[in-house]
Design brief:
Elements (H helix, E strand, L loop, with lengths): L7 H10 L4 H24 L3 H22 L9 H16 L6
């Protein structure tokens, strides 16, 4: 049975437990950084293929981290909106040094 979280504040600590492996967090960071680059390329070129690159690289990095390093299922399978928000919060915390990557 899957726990349904009623707030992001309640969900985020759980999300971090699903990213305990440093290599998983690194894969997330690289994937999110690549997604940002893809979005920037889209804005520069207005070529919609870059949006596909952004989505594939963003989720691809996360899935590699979970399936190969963390050995669990991404939280986005059960909590997609909270997971999307949590990924950006985790990314920011890694970028600013509040969370090791």
């Amino acid at each position: 049975m899957t726990t349904r979280y009623t707030s992001f504040a309640e969900f985020y600590p759980y999300y971090l437990t699903q990213h305990a492996n440093r290599m998983c967090r690194r894969a997330h960071f690289i994937g999110t950084s690549s997604a940002i680059a893809g979005i920037a390329q889209y804005i520069d070129s207005m070529n919609p293929w870059w949006l596909l690159v952004a989505v594939v690289s963003g989720y691809g990095g996360a899935w590699v981290g979970h399936f190969f390093y963390e050995n669990n299922r991404p939280a986005s399978f059960t909590q997609p909106l909270y997971s999307f928000r949590a990924d950006w919060k985790m990314y920011w915390q890694m970028l600013t040094g509040k969370l090791s990557w």
